[in-house]
Amino acid sequence: MIENINHNKQLKTRQICLFFIAFTPLTKLFSMPSVLALLSSHDLWISALINVVIDLITLFFLISVAKRTDKTYFEMLKDFFGNVGAKIICTLYVVFFLLKSIVPITEQKNYLEATLYLSMPSFLYFFGFFIVAFYLATKKMRVLGRLSDVLFSFTLSGFLTLIFLSLNNVDFTSVLPIGAMGFKNIFAGSYHTFSWFGDAVYMVFFLGNFIKTKRFGIKIVASYLVNAVMVLLFLIVFYGIFTSIAFRQRFALTEIAKYTTVISNTGRIDYLAIISLLFPCIISTALPLFLACKILEQVFNIKNKFISPLIIIGLTFLFVWIFEEYYYSIKGFILNILSFILLVFSNIFPLIFIFTKNKEKYEKN
Amino acid sequence: MNLSKNLDENLTKIKEILASDDIIFLDVDVGKNKGSLIFAGEIADKNALSQEVLKPLKALEQIDLSSLSQVFLCAEQKQVEEIEKIVEEVVTGNSVLLVDGLESAFSFGLKKFEKRSIMEPPTSTVIKGPREGFVESLPVNISMMRRKICSPDLKFINLRAGRFSDTAVSICYIDGIADKNLVETLKKKLQAINIDAVLDSSYVSKFLGEHRRSIFKQVGNTEKPDILAAKILEGRVAVFVDGSPIALTVPYLLIEDFQSPSDYYASSYSATISRIIRAISVMLSLFTPAFFVASELFHLQFIPFAFLLTIENSIKGIPLSPSYEMFFTLLIFEILNEASIRMPRYVGMVVSIVGGLVLGETAVSAGIISAPTLMIVAFSGICLYTVPELVQTFSVLRFLFLIIAGSIGAYGLICSALLILIYITSFETYNTPLCAPFSPLITKDLKDSIYKGFFIEHEYRPKSLNNFNKKRMKTK
């Protein structure tokens, strides 16, 4: 028999694993380290670790759900809340993803303005992001897996180069003593940076869309741990270089490796690593928009592949440019007030499906 | 329209259709009956015709018409009963004998075309390995394949395409390895071709591609029987077109163009290094001009300080902006390239001297373009020719990237490269992803990708292709 590599399921377990390595760490490397340094000082990594643990717990539960059922999230919602209920919840998820995307998009725009472009209005070049996001959203979910297969090497090579160039200047003792900032500051750091985390929510929408292989749960959790280690290592190295002035380094990605002695001989070779990271980073930033489009298509049964990207990307584009002046107020609102709502949608709400087994048993009886 | 028993009536009808001076109607005696031998004078093998058809007829005094077919010595003969079919036979080079009193005619496969001798194809020369290449004759090409693969599983399906050219087209595959659905799909596609003429395999390739407006290649090609044999043994299906020395193969993977024929006859180490060099060269060719312009215009921080000073000195007094400068230099390179291909060989030398030396050197010394720009264009141009099959596509992309980088800098370049990446990773032809085995990642197939594995590692046929009978090597 022919073994067709184009299985009906959109993704493979390996691609989900590579997805977590390629895309999820990247949006956390821009301004999140400085925000964490401001709130938790040298215990920034513990704050991040708390968010990682929350994500890991959700991931565990989602994998246990995936082991029991082949249904997609939408199908499970339909079983629980009926068609109308499922549609309402999914529409709320569209709003959730739109909110989740605002900070990383604007952050990336500001990063480009501040570090790569000095003499050009961001409207011109940053429009490219929306074109990529739009084009990506017209594709099926399979494209995420395919891109993960290619772009994980960009992430790993870029990340390792930056870390390698930075290690020379790191004072690892600066993150000691552990926990000295107190629980209040550590938890404040966790809470206010939660919008950058909540990656388990991606797994929610991969449910029922991937081919399960042997021990797929362990593989996915392991890959999530690789992502977590990358983020934590970056935070420690970042704080180890800048220590008490870390909170002033708004764009850690550009700052982290620029003091290496290698640069004085070769020029800013760290930019090669940054460019390598920008490839997966653009996809990573566009991910919430991609999922919002896919959910919208499913909820309203939209057949034309251009309609939902036009609505979602168009709305985001308008929002980013109209409220450009109020970015810091919006960012403050999302980080301070909406964090809990984001947490509910990404990590708490999906847990109701722990009960799917009971429900299926009930249906059988 | 069926033949009648009356020879004159039949001849009148045929002469109406075949009213051309090169068509010969030769009156012959078939025993006591009258007959007419019809053939195209310039493509029929007259010697064979006289030896295998006319001579036996001459020796004939009386014959029962029902056993006439046993008289001829020709190995390839058949009976035809329709006038349209007779016309088709004659225009394709066969000779047809009509006999008074018979409602069918005899067609003899005795054609003789002038054909080029087998030689090494100029597009894929090798130091080691077979040097023979396909020619324009379909029967010769088929014979070369039969010689390479002496197996009853090697199958050919003969079709015809082109309303006026009525060109012979042949599908070639290995039964038991190739996907039969793919063979059927190809057959349908070839049968559906409805154009005036199929003058080359490239005409057919346009119809085999599933994305008609795509800038990327969708059908592989080769001029070498050894390469084609290897490809169909992996599960691909080939298409030959009479009159073309290039065989087409589907499904096509992008990585194929990075694999040179010589890789399979060289050591694994040198083949791997060559492939890495090709891949790096193509990337450099594609991105260096655009990245250089973006750095010069928007991101001076990318350029090391010492190099920046050199650039600064060289661009002093240049009237054009870096992006225009690079664009026009690249355009001149493409013009020279185009001219050198089209010009007669004896003028070609002059073009390379005038273009390469005089034009380049003078433009730099006159201060019209800078030396780094010229160097980057030359480097980019040479790099692209490490993978000649991709030159057309990547030349267009290089211009596109240059315009974007010159307008909005490196971020625009990254975004446009990502758009291309999204496009090619989601691109499939005949259910085969273009970027396999990298995307989707098929680890087993990586043994013959950029890395060229040792011969013993190629135990299985590529999983990237939908093929039967995965195992190709017996191991203990």
Mean pLDDT of chain A: 88
Strand order of the largest sheet of chain A: 1-2
Q: Which topology of chain A does CATH recognise?
A: Amino acid/polyamine transporter I
Order of neighbouring strands in the sheet with most strands of chain B: 1-2-4-5-3
Overall shape of chain B: it is elongated
- In CATH, the homologous superfamily of chain A goes by the name Amino acid/polyamine transporter I
Helix/strand order of chain B, N-terminal first = HEEHEHEEHEEHHEHEEHHHHHHEE
Q: Which structural class should the secondary elements of chain B be placed in? A: alpha+beta
Outline type of chain A? globular
Radius of gyration of chain B: 29 Å
- Rg of chain A: 21 Å
Structural overview:
The complex is a heterodimer of chains A (365) and B (476). Chain A is an all-alpha fold and 365 residues long. Chain A has one domain: Amino acid/polyamine transporter I, CATH 1.20.1740. Helices cover 72% and strands 1% of the residues of chain A. Chain A contains 15 helices and two strands. Chain A has helices at 13-22, 32-40, 44-68, 73-116, 122-137, 142-166, 182-192, 200-206, 216-242, 252-255, 261-266, 270-299, 307-322, 327-348, 356-364, and strands at 11-12, 210-211. A two-stranded parallel sheet of chain A has the order 1-2. In chain A, helix 1 (13-22) crosses helix 6, helix 6 runs antiparallel to helix 12 (270-299) and helix 12 (270-299) crosses helix 13 (307-322). The radius of gyration of chain A is 21 Å and the shape is globular. The model of chain A is unreliable at 1-6 and 361-365 (pLDDT under 50). With 476 residues, chain B is of the alpha+beta class. Chain B has three domains: 7-108, no CATH class; 138-252, no CATH class; 275-425, no CATH class. Chain B has a five-stranded antiparallel β-sheet with strand order 1-2-4-5-3, with helices on both faces. In chain B, strand 11 and strand 12 form a beta hairpin. Chain B is elongated. The termini of chain B are far apart. The mean pLDDT of chain B is 89. The chains are: A mainly alpha (365), B alpha+beta (476). Chains A and B meet through helix 1, helix 5, helix 6 and helix 12 of A and helix 13 of B.
